[in-house]
């Protein structure tokens, strides 16, 4: 039976140290693997060996599959992105002017075409950044994304540390409007706005 968590259908992650001291290294190696998988132009036999090695890793991990409340993924608060492999690598901090600022970096795994990050990966980054801002800057309870609007203004490069910021534009009852911008120095690469809605008790 699944345990009941605070927040009804929207259950907060419970901090854990599961995975031990090497869990962060495990995730970084997985990210490196994703980049190499997109970049590799290897002989056929190398891909065959890699497939065999990866199958061994899958076989090693498969007996330990668990639900989201048991896995350390998304619950390691000591790791970037809480140890969530899906998230675009980033780091944010609250500033004195009431915003979040930090950096983000798209890898080869996030490549769209011609050196540009995939637009969907930018959306993934913005949803993470805006969601963090909506929660952290309002101190509010659990929220869900109602909409996310993105303006793609310039090519977003991969393999480069970029600057990202987010701020609260306004609030209207349960509605929280949040803005964001992604820059490379003085150049705005993309910006956007999202609406987050504070959930009612027990609302999924």
UniProtKB/TrEMBL annotation:
| Enzymatic reactions | hexadecanoyl-CoA + H2O = hexadecanoate + CoA + H(+); dodecanoyl-CoA + H2O = dodecanoate + CoA + H(+); decanoyl-CoA + H2O = decanoate + CoA + H(+); octanoyl-CoA + H2O = octanoate + CoA + H(+)
Q: Does this entry carry the keyword Membrane?
A: yes
Q: Does the keyword Transport apply?
A: no
- The UniProt regions of compositional bias labelled Gly residues, in chain numbering, are 1-10
E.C. number: 3.1.2.2
Q: Which family does it belong to?
A: Belongs to the THEM4/THEM5 thioesterase family.
| Protein name per UniProt | Acyl-coenzyme A thioesterase THEM4
Originating species: Mycolicibacter senuensis
């Amino acid at each position: 039976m699944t345990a009941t968590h605070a927040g009804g259908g929207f259950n907060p992650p419970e901090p854990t140290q599961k995975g031990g001291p090497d869990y962060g290294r495990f995730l970084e190696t997985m990210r490196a693997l994703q980049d190499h998988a997109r970049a590799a132009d290897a002989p056929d036999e190398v891909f065959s060996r890699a497939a065999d090695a990866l199958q061994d890793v899958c076989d090693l991990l498969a007996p330990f599959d668990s639900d989201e409340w048991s896995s350390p993924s998304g619950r390691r608060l000591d790791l970037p992105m809480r140890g969530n492999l899906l998230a675009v690598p980033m780091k944010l901090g609250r500033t004195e002017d009431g915003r979040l600022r930090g950096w983000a970096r798209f890898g080869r795994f996030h490549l769209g075409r011609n050196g540009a990050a995939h637009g969907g990966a930018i959306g993934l980054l913005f949803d993470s950044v805006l969601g963090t801002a909506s929660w952290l800057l309002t101190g509010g309870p659990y929220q869900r994304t109602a909409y996310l609007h993105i303006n793609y203004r310039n090519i977003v490069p991969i393999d480069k540390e970029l600057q990202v910021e987010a701020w609260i534009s306004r609030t209207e009852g349960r509605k929280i409007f949040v803005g964001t911008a992604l820059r490379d120095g003085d150049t705005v690469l993309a910006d956007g706005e999202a609406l987050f809605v504070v959930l009612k008790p027990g609302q999924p």
